[in-house]
Design brief:
This is DUF6257 family protein. It holds the Pfam family DUF6257. The structure is a single chain. With about 70 residues, the chain is an all-alpha fold. It is built from two helices and no strands. Helix 1 packs antiparallel against helix 2. The longest helix is centred in the C-terminal third of the chain and has 38 residues. The termini are far apart.
Length: about 70
């Protein structure tokens, strides 16, 4: 499995809320459908991975631009 990204405070709060809802449904019965909550949880994790990749690419581009600007002086 891929390494988990660093989550924002909002993402952590959403995942905690979903985990609590899943636990509540689990207490109600083991046969209660939780797929909808699991999909939302997975979507948050995937979004965080995409955000982290975007930020890494932006950092590389900014570094490259800074090097170019340094040599233009």
């Amino acid at each position: 499995m891929a390494k988990d990204p660093k989550f924002t405070t909002g993402e952590i709060a959403k995942m905690a809320w979903l985990t609590a809802r899943m636990a509540k449904r689990g207490i109600a019965s083991e046969t209660v459908y939780q797929g909808d909550l699991e999909k939302k949880f997975t979507k948050i994790v995937d979004g965080a991975r995409e955000r982290e990749e975007r930020e890494a690419l932006d950092a590389v581009a900014a570094e490259k631009a800074a090097r170019k600007a340094k040599y233009r002086k």
